[in-house]
């Protein structure tokens, strides 16, 4: 029996990840989620081609119109086409989500490796991380944006920093167990340098949990960005994102509720899909979970 | 001590397994048991011996009705318990039989006990589920069974958690739980493998004593021929899902019929130490002077305490010779090994490598010395990075010391041939090899750097006995060719007797006896050494010769 488990765990990472979107393996939900997410991504990538209007062009005569043939989803308070703005806004939201995940994982993995491997650094780093985790992340984000001004870069930073401690904790726990493995001690005995041990022996152990964590960070970053924009602490309103489209629609909710509902729907689909895929990735990468479902 | 020779033919048959066939579930049916038949009488101990993968555990799990449903299926055959076919029972009826008539104890008592429940309550729980007794009556019964398994200070242990007990005590608790409902059959799956020899001896005699008292039939699963010689009435030798040979213990040990049985018995290392080789050179390549390691524990503000994991270790080892460090778990032998390897820094004493003290060198100063000191670990499944190809693992060391990749690969190929592995092994991953093959790879990796000293930390303990013999031969051959000095850490006196020139016996961090293997293992001076040798299972029998050992 143990042999069966082991062979499942030893399959290359890519193969195990691929198996998670096959409906035969995991059921329909991750499969549908992947299609939905792909659709949203394609919609935003090709937004210049798909858009029916210039998303930034204002038309005072066409303010707050309901959906029509000319404006698929109607117009906003400045007479801009809601559909065009929404699909362009998705670009920024997704970009911020992915960037935040990449930066948070990169920083978190580096700090986590150091914390997990060096005992002295561990005590200092983890206290700092605890302190960071004790602060409400949205307050840190608002503070950072207020400090640096509302640009995409500062929003990404504002979203990333509160995520880092979570990644650090995860990486550290993986490293703490992996560093006790005899193959790590064997590497020391073979004269391998510390960076070599860290990056070639220990780092690969963190990949599977990091992929899963990454999907959750993307989802939560998209939400946080929307929240920041909604609160007026996000990217300037000239660049549409799902968050600031909704924020602007707040005052016109009674006249044209679509301004909030449509971007909100897309945001929901996006985050839900990413979360479902993250769950599937977790199951695919952890043979024990798969067994439990069977 | 002698082989058992009891006549139990008048006793009723408790368990009768006939033509049991178990296959893997799913489309590709792979046979795991190919028609196993055996029966056990009241009060009889039947030993299932075989190497890993032979189907011993599957046989016991099938009998318990505990085969993993989605992985293994019984295709045909019967298992009768007092005449009733267990395979035809409904799951709930089987559950009831399991409680009343069948009991099982496992290898690792820590994982089989609930860590957050007091052991007394855990034993009582068995009674709660399967009997109707008053609270006082139950407690009396639990205390009684705990006394029967010879637990000291029963009242205190009743209220202890598993982690507060020693390994042997935990196994006693497991036995108490298994026997409290007076089962007809006790299945013991390697119950002493995780225990020290002295504890093992006690547990084996406990099982025998309780069997005598309650007339329990025992199915004892083990890979250790020594244990078999101690307790078996009859033996079944298994390989690849088949029983190759079965019969009374004396018959199987004296006149094994099957070739495999003979090979198996032949590879059990003898307890009679071989003669030490001549110490020609005299100059020592590695030496320890008063070496010790003390661990300081306690937090920043908390209470400080210290543990002396090892102290006062002295030895000199010259090229081509083997030093054995022998002891039970917690004796500090691994601490000594790790200190010598400088995986930890010793707190006292010196380690002289070619005359230079390396005990307190910094990592950078240590690097050129590391080349001369290599290590082979116990568990071949964990000592190779599972994500790396064999080529990458084997060339790691040479590349660290500036050898070109092409040269390193050529050397790896040459060494793989010496350890009898195919050349194409280089491109494969560790999980594609068996335990013995991996251990040979680990040894090849260690000698890639042409070290002067090889530390083998329980390097053959996780291997089957026939594979163990091959790996020991390989080490001896490498030693003969390269003149490497080996420090061999082991708890197994048989292995120590066969390969060591000198032996150092450790107990609780201290060296209690030291000297040539032929003297220490043959005429031990210290009580502890004597106790260790006394406890070695099957010490009265010469397995290779098939006759009692005359001292």
UniProtKB/TrEMBL annotation, chain B:
GO MF: ATP binding; ATP hydrolysis activity
What the entry lists under PROSITE patterns is as follows: ABC_TRANSPORTER_1 (PS00211), ABC_TRANSPORTER_2 (PS50893)
Record-given protein name? Dipeptide ABC transporter ATP-binding protein
Q: Where in the cell is it found?
A: Cell inner membrane
Q: Which PANTHER family match?
A: DIPEPTIDE TRANSPORT ATP-BINDING PROTEIN DPPD (PTHR43297:SF2), OLIGOPEPTIDE TRANSPORT ATP-BINDING PROTEIN APPD (PTHR43297)
Q: What is the lineage of its organism?
A: Bacteria, Pseudomonadati, Pseudomonadota, Alphaproteobacteria, Rhodobacterales
Record's superkingdom? Bacteria
Q: Which organism is it from?
A: Paracoccus litorisediminis
Q: Which family does it belong to?
A: Belongs to the ABC transporter superfamily.
Q: How does it sit in the membrane?
A: Peripheral membrane protein
